[in-house]
Request: fold
Amino acid sequence: MNPVELSQTQRERLAFLEMRAYFTGELRRADIEARFGIKPAASSRDIGAYREIAPENLDYDSVARCYRPSEAFKPLFAFQSERVLAWLLQGFGDGLDVRQRQVAPCDGPGNLVKPDLGVLGTVTRSMCAKRALRINYLSLSSGSKKREIVPVALADNGLGWHVRSYDRERGRFSDFVLTRIAKAQEIDGEVAESELLSADEQWARMVDMEIVPHPGIKWPKAVEADYAMVDGSLRIKTRAALAGYVLRRWGIDSTDDHRLDHASHHLWLRNPQTLYGVESASLAPGRDAVQKGRQ
Reply:
């Protein structure tokens, strides 16, 4: 059987099936049924069709009663990293590239950062299974080095992706740039509660930021319109672990006295005191250049 011989709807289900198995490390019939609203008999046929096309890709775990990607797994569908990451982040974009004619001309600057899907799959499987990884990591400060980490979350900083992880060498949670992970291998054994996401205080803490037009701008109403501000301000609530990335991504002047050039920074953080104790704040425009918690 060839995927092109299947109906479009079944190909979509098989693409979801494959992505679910590969990037989470497990697949159950109920996953397909819940996603597409089909009956158990139909989900069984989908799994049977997939195993007929790619017989070496899935192993059945009789203890957990689920399918897992095999050591010989080779993707049947050509997933794009952007679509996979969109699925991981927002739960849609199941990976099947259905090319349709655009209803209106539309384009954008594109993304220069394209993570390796093999590495991403290893990271997300270990994350779902709550396992540690041994990685080869390329750091700007120390070059290539072996590290032991416990991945707990993926985060998009607007320009690229990083893996929020417990760094066993430094004994703290840090951010590892996904594209700098050259190799990743799962480590057997349980991880400690102190290494899991629930123990990451910077991830759990929510930061309220009040964003306003930079005081140096002559016509602030234009900026208010850009960001749909209400009463001249925009309220943002984000995780402390991500606050610095948000401020940097949008070029928000984070100084107490809004001293940065308004020509480059149209926005100002009116309540900079909210960044007290926020480790990622070192990334924000105008803040301390020392990057705590980031490689």
The helical segments are 8-24, 29-36, 40-53, 81-90, 117-129, 201-204, 220-226, 240-249. Residues 289-295 have pLDDT under 50 and may be disordered. The chain has three domains: 3-80, 117-199, 205-283.
